[in-house]
Amino acid sequence: MNCNDSAVFFGKRYYLFLMVFLGALSAFGPFISDFYLPTLPSLASVFSTTPSMVQLGLTASMLGIAVGQLLVGPVSDKYGRRPLLVASLLLFSLASVAIIFSPTIEFFNVCRFLQGLGGSGGIVMSRSVATDCYSGQELAKTLAIVGTINGIAPVIAPLVGGMVANTVGWRGIFLILLVIGVGLLACCSRFRESLPRENRIKGSTLKVVGGFVKVLRQPLFSTYIAVFGLAYGVLFSYISSAPFIVQNRFGFSEMQFSMVFAVNAIGTAIGSGLTMRFKKVQNAALFSTAGMTVFALMQLVALFMSDSFMVYETITFLMMFSMGFIFPSVTTLAMTEGRQAIGAASAILGAVGFVFGGIVSPLVGLGDMALSSVIVMLVCAFGSLLFSLIGKRCLDRRVS
User: Fold this and answer.
1) Which distant-in-sequence residues (6+ apart) come within 8 Å of 267 by Cβ?
2) Alpha helix (H) residue ranges in 338-368
3) pLDDT digit string (tens) for 78-89?
4) Judging by beta carbons within 10 Å of its beta carbon (0-12, 13-18, 19+), is residue 87 exposed, middle or buried?
5) Residue 343 scores a pLDDT above 70
6) Cα–Cα dist 139/149, whole Å
């Protein structure tokens, strides 16, 4: 039974379950990174190490997510979505247990890589399953719904993380992640396979790898992959620098930072939900990248002209709001171009995003964090704008 058949069989109840389930799976990325953000400064003291070493935990998890997607995505094109999802969630849960008992920062970072590796399955499946079931405007609508649910995750994650950090410490945060992983694993019992056997890749494992070649040969796919990756560079520049800027520079507590982070995440969720207001998905991507570039430039100017938290927060909120449009729109554009090998396309999309995130996270810790982070944001935002313009021009030519 494929996704569309099950949706008919179970009706609206299954459709609602599927949307929430896919949204929860896509939220693995924000939860893995954002949930323990309020504890980043304190973890440096707990493990007697430097901020850069602590930020390396973010890099490790993002690289794990990137590598995992490159493995899980194309293999799921051959063996189906459900078996790979179950295996990924099992690994995520086991890695979460290991993290709770980490004796050193080095062991912690290794386990974070494994946790990211396990969490990658949920992220890649959220896009693959949606593309298995829908296309065109329906796919854009589904990804916008999933994106809005996903946008709620960064709101909940730091708020709960801040409360847990103040009560049972950083280990409590990873205990909650363990519970979430086990809960999603239990939900797999209701999830129906979305990739019928007749649509799976036949033959040897080499044909699975060939899926990468198929989608990368599509010029527009590669263009929107670049847009997506550079946008993630902006996102993770903010994620990895915000705890230190808000808490150390402006003197906020862990809980206060969580609330600030939640407000900005709400902006991203609102932007994601408004994506369907655009008649052409490529216009939403262009609007998003232009907004990110403008507000990153404003943040750079404000850095030299003002030391006000309200100025910093207002510009950051507007930049996060602009970013909200990019994930449903660019995901739809890229997955549409990569429909020849959906799992491979989803894997590349997600992996590139987290590779960019993994690269920029330690960079923002070099020198003055406020300055280095905004420079990285501006460079990535401008790059995403250029590729978005190229993509729009190519799509407009195709239509004409």
Assistant:
1) 317, 318, 320, 321, 324
2) 342-363
3) 888 899 999 999
4) middle
5) yes
6) 15
Give Cβ neighbours of residue 155 (< 8 Å, ≥ 6 apart): 262, 265, 266, 269
| Contact of 135 with 339, CB cutoff 8 Å | yes
- How far apart (Å, rounded) are the C-alpha atoms in residues 96 and 356? 24
Band of pLDDT at residue 292, cut at 50, 70 and 90: very high
Angle ∠(64,228,194) on CA atoms, nearest 5: 70
Interatomic CA distance for residues 88 and 373, integer angstroms: 32
Cα 162 to its chain centre, rounded Å, is 21
Please state, as a whole number, how many other Cβ atoms lie within 10 Å of the Cβ of residue 329: 32
The pLDDT > 70 percentage for the chain reads 91
Closest alpha carbon to 218 in 128, 125, 342 = 342
Band of pLDDT at residue 123, cut at 50, 70 and 90: confident
Whether 387 has a pLDDT exceeding 50, the answer reads yes
Q: How many CB atoms lie within 10 A of CB 397?
A: 8
DSSP 84: H
Cβ within 8 Å of residue 149, ≥6 positions away: 19, 20, 22, 23, 24, 26, 27
Backbone angles phi, psi at 370, to 5 degrees: -60, -45
Does 397 have pLDDT greater than 60? yes
DSSP state of 189: T
Determine the Cα–Cα distance for residues 298 and 319; give it in Å rounded to an integer.
10
Helices 219-244 and 51-79 meet at what angle, rounded to 10? 150
| DSSP per-residue letters across 85-143 | HHHHHHHHHHHHHHHHT--SHHHHHHHHHHHHHHHHHHHHHHHHHHHHH--HHHHHHHH
